[in-house]
């Protein structure tokens, strides 16, 4: 054997298996690059974009109208505030048995009277409620209502009738405050009329639009409290001049959109995901548990998560799945008592209490029966309310199972469109 025969060429000294391995690595690596860079351009658009105007509204349109203060000086001043703009916000002025509304001739058409058979009247004109300027008229009505009550319930004391007056503010932009306990937003079913056609947005016609119940004008009075500058809600105070003022350092109001993002962070920090999942799987137990009495819930779709920065699909469930909790449990009061004391809201619950979502200990010197929710509560509550409400309007049909055809379409039809 000569030297030359002994010397193999580069390719001859190369093991075939090594060649296969290296080619394999290159193919795998480049396909991974192709998948991450190119594939997203070809996904079903319903995965990455809002599929209903309602979904956009939930994120964008309703948000700029909803503010809540996070840094008032006194905890009881935490209040939800609406920024109302002419032609933008839908309002309903609906009487109930105990709340009656006085209105001038011109404004009469905006009031939905108690027990009237006309559908709920909505308007996008900025109108507000206040204590009646003409007290004698209000007193007369109050007397009348009390007498009526006494006639039919002679033994019981009459309820506290509230009489308010509808008025048109000078500005076509205003702030309205709603007590944190009140119903802030409500769903509208298809049974409503919008009174001002020229101010109409396309989303106004969708059932499930958000409207605001009976707001009051928002005014504040500046105060000094233990050397600190603060403010109080005061109907006789100065009106808020601008959105910047409302959101600035003095008042510290946050929009609903900001609150949802804070809520997401709180959900992460508090470890809610340790016990809760955020996905309705296609499995029977999921769609049944998250559904109504009559109909299953739609399984989660990727599109529901588009506005989330962090997603918490979760892996195991110590508590129930939360992906439909915004529809299943819309009541702010329920969540308030549940976070304060899960055991009282839900018998035998092992969920820990989250009392740092509240500012005042009701068992301390305060006479209050529950803590005053602070911005942490508002944030987690607003965040939970996005769960399941970003699919399609949670029409009453879906939840109450009144309309099987529509429900089945919602569950099965949305994907095939
Ligand atoms: C130790 C586990 C655990 C942790 C941590 C936990 N939960 Fe729960 N959660 C439960 C259990 C168990 C239930 C069911 C009993 C009940 O309703 O309290 C529940 C119920 C709920 C419900 C009612 C759901 C329904 O469909 O009835 C909501 C809403 C909720 N939790 C939200 C949260 C949030 C938000 C956090 C974080 C701030 C959180 N939970 C942290 C265990 C937990």
Topology overview:
Elements: H1 3-6, H2 16-37, H3 53-61, E1 66-69, E2 80-85, E3 91-94, E4 99-102, E5 111-112, E6 120-123, E7 128-130, H4 135-152, E8 162-167, E9 173-178, E10 185-187, E11 192-194, E12 210-213, E13 216-217, E14 219-225, E15 228-233, E16 238-239, H5 243-247, E17 253-255, H6 256-269, H7 272-275, H8 284-289, H9 325-328, H10 332-340, H11 342-345, H12 375-384, H13 396-400, H14 404-416
Parallel strand pairs: 3-5, 3-12, 4-8, 6-11
Antiparallel strand pairs: 1-2, 1-17, 2-9, 3-6, 7-8, 9-13, 10-12, 14-15, 14-16
Helix pairs in contact: 6-12
Bound molecules: heme C.
Task: Determine the structural class based on helices, strands and strand pairing.
Answer: alpha+beta
Beta-strand portion reads 15-25%
The biggest beta sheet reads: 6 strands, mixed
Which molecules are bound in this entry? Answer: heme C
Rg computed from alpha carbons, rounded to a whole number of angstroms: 28 Å
Head-to-tail CA distance between termini: 76 Å
Overall pLDDT metric: 78
- Count of helical regions: 14
The low-confidence parts are: 72-77, 180-184, 361-369
The helix fraction, in percent, is 25-40%
The tally of domains stands at 2
DSSP strand count: 17
| Multimeric state | single chain
Note the overall shape: elongated
